[in-house]
Amino acid sequence: xxxxxxxxxxxxxxxxxxxxxxxxxxxxxxxxxxxxxxxxxxxxxxxxxxxxxxxxxxxxxxxxxxxxxxxxxxxxxxxxxxxxxxxxxxxxxxxxxxxxxxxxxxxxxxxxxxxxx
Length: 117
Known about the structure:
Helix content is 57%, strand content 7%. It has five helices and four strands, in the order βααββααβα. It is globular.
C-alpha cells in the first residue's frame, strides 16, 4: 500500500488552469514545483482531505512551517520572518477556496512566488 500520492507537475498546472490563475508561466511553476519536490512536499498522504489554511490555525501553521523548510530559513531566527511567511500564506488563501490537500502544492507555489518574485 503506497504511503502517499505524488502530485505531478501536470496536476499542478491543471489546478492553475481550473482556478483561472494564468499569471504564472510554466517555467516558473516548474521551478517552484521542483523546489517543493526537493523537500518532499509533493508527496501527500490523504490528498482528498480538506486543506483550510484560511480557516484552521493548524493548517496555517503547517503551511508556514513547511514553506520555511522549503526556503531553508534558519529556524533559530524564524520569528523574524514568520509574519512575512504568514502574509504570503494569507495572500495565497485569497486565491484558493474549498481546497483539498491535493491543491496544497499549487497553493505553496502561489505563496512561494510571493516570497521569491
